[in-house]
Design brief:
9 helices; 291 residues; alpha/beta
Length: 291
């Protein structure tokens, strides 16, 4: 099937790597969709196809993921470096004030980018992440990153996804886990599924002060009050607590929020209530632009 997006290859901010993005054409405002730690552009395919046409949707693979090159220096697998790559992509494609949508790590990136220059963005959509990242959730993620060496076929890949994510999606059936696996894995030259990321991305999660999550993000959050924000939370999330979400809203009275019942970290953004919330948020931004 012919893809509904164009392939974009672009240099990393430091010029050492070739990075990749999907560019779904559209006539409306642009959205830049940024995935989580172990994920890639495939995570957003359903949402991107749904929004394409009405919006231009650009979905990159961060360095070390998907079709982007792996970095020989694992110390570069940190949000500030990823943000620099994204600023280069925005400039290269001439994206004018994109809406930043980020899941987990991608949401942290959206907050960093928005705080650096809020006037450069139309708004933020944060999927299951906020200024406080719960230690228990971070420890859970660190426990499995890069640990799929015994997977030999797609049945095993689906089982790996179930074992590492069943707490987030207790309602998933076998077909759902296989579909999940095809987002998270790619086949190697021998047809064996392998994780579509560099295992070295786990470096930023090691130690007592992991660099994957910048410390003390409330001051940064307070710089975002001029931006429209939609915050999405899985009801059972172990990364974004209900208390943190409430405090986010208290500090940013105009923030909108949406909750996904029965789901943990992180909603897939194909849930009907989430799609409706995102569309409503984007419609408000379009209406504001037209006013």
């Amino acid at each position: 099937m012919t893809p509904s997006y164009a392939d974009v290859f672009f240099p990393s901010a430091d010029g050492r790597l070739q990075l990749y993005a999907r560019d779904y054409a559209g006539a409306g405002p642009c959205l830049l969709l940024m995935h989580g730690l172990t994920r890639n552009a495939a995570d957003f395919d359903e949402l991107a196809r749904h929004l394409a046409g009405r919006f231009r949707v650009v979905v990159p693979d961060q360095r070390g993921r998907g079709r982007s090159q792996y970095d020989p220096e694992p110390a570069n697998y940190v949000p500030l470096v990823y943000c620099s790559d994204m600023l280069g992509l925005i400039a290269r494609l001439g994206l004018e004030r994109p809406v930043l949508l980020g899941t987990s790590m991608g949401g942290l990136m959206a907050m960093v980018m928005g705080s650096m220059a809020p006037q450069n963005y139309r708004g933020l959509v944060l999927n299951d992440v906020g200024p406080v990242v719960e230690p228990a959730g971070l420890a859970r993620i660190a426990s499995y990153v890069g640990t799929a060496s015994e997977v030999t076929d797609w049945t095993g890949a689906a089982e790996y996804c179930r074992l590492t994510n069943s707490s987030a999606f207790p309602h998933y059936q076998d077909a759902d886990w296989l579909r999940f696996a095809h987002r998270l894995f790619v086949e190697d030259a021998n047809g064996v599924p392998r994780l579509a990321y560099d295992p070295a991305i786990a470096t930023g999660l090691a130690g007592s002060d992991p660099s994957a999550v910048p410390p003390d993000l409330w001051p940064m959050w307070d710089t975002l009050t001029s931006l429209p924000i939609l915050a999405i939370r899985g009801e059972n999330s172990d990364i974004l607590s209900a208390a943190t979400l409430a405090e986010m809203g208290r500090r940013h009275p105009g923030m909108r929020s949406a909750s996904v019942a029965g789901v943990g970290h992180a909603p897939m953004l194909d849930e009907p209530e989430v799609v409706a919330a995102i569309e409503g948020f984007l419609d408000e931004i379009r209406a504001h632009d037209a006013a």
